[in-house]
Design goal:
10 helices, mainly alpha, globular, about 0% strand, MetI-like fold
Length: about 220
């Protein structure tokens, strides 16, 4: 089988599904990770070091282990089996959120920690409303936020082990670019695998380029 035997409609379908899964996982990871990262970066409390250690450990968690845990949760006889989400896009998203979340939290913590220690006191002294202070904080750490987006997106977009375990690479349902590449490679269809790999690398370069442009603009 060669690249020509992969229909354009199939390639578009797999690519769009890949983008949909990645976008969903990234949005959830940011929604959860940014507030957690800001809280860990700004506040000092008992157990903070333990939590930071867990976050740092999570950055190196093997994706295949994450996939195993999530898959067992959604197995028919698992704790969440009644949801019937095993081998589903939702299960894939759940696994990728767990993979991306520590990256987001850790980079946001680092960005917040780099602020002037008196920054929060200064904005409070100026009498700036709470909601506006939060917006100013996000602006101050925007480079760290974009770095978190790039790191999380890279980890999600290139992931295959956890996605295979939770999604099963079902044609027309859960097949994404990484699992399709693995399938074609195992079948010895290397031209097809390279064609899909080129699409995946192209997506990564385009997305990373756009985010880098947003991050640095004309200064790059």
């Amino acid at each position: 089988m060669n690249v020509a035997e992969i229909s354009s409609s199939e390639l578009v379908e797999i690519t769009l599904r890949t983008l949909g899964v990645c976008a969903s996982a990234l949005l959830i990871a940011l929604t959860l990770g940014v507030p957690i990262g800001i809280a860990l970066g700004r506040r000092h409390f008992t157990g903070r070091r333990v939590l930071l250690g867990l976050v740092n450990s999570g950055m190196g968690a093997p994706p295949v282990v994450v996939g195993l845990i999530v898959a067992q949760l959604f197995f028919r006889n698992g704790p969440l089996g009644h949801l019937e989400l095993w081998y589903s896009v939702e299960a894939m998203v759940a696994a990728q959120v767990i993979i991306a979340l520590p990256l987001v939290v850790a980079l946001v913590v680092a960005a917040v920690a780099a602020l002037d220690p008196d920054w929060e006191l200064q904005v409070e002294t100026l009498g700036i409303p709470t909601l506006w202070r939060r917006w100013l904080l996000l602006r101050e750490i925007r480079l760290g936020l974009l770095a978190a987006v790039i790191a999380a997106l890279g980890g999600i977009l290139s992931e295959v082990g956890a996605v295979m375990q939770t999604g099963g690479n079902l044609e027309g349902e859960t097949r994404v670019l990484t699992t399709a590449i693995l399938m074609h490679t195992r079948m010895g269809m290397f031209e097809s695998a390279y064609g899909l790999a080129a699409m995946l690398v192209g997506l990564m370069l385009v997305l990373a380029g756009l985010l880098t442009w947003v991050q640095y603009g004309d200064r790059a």
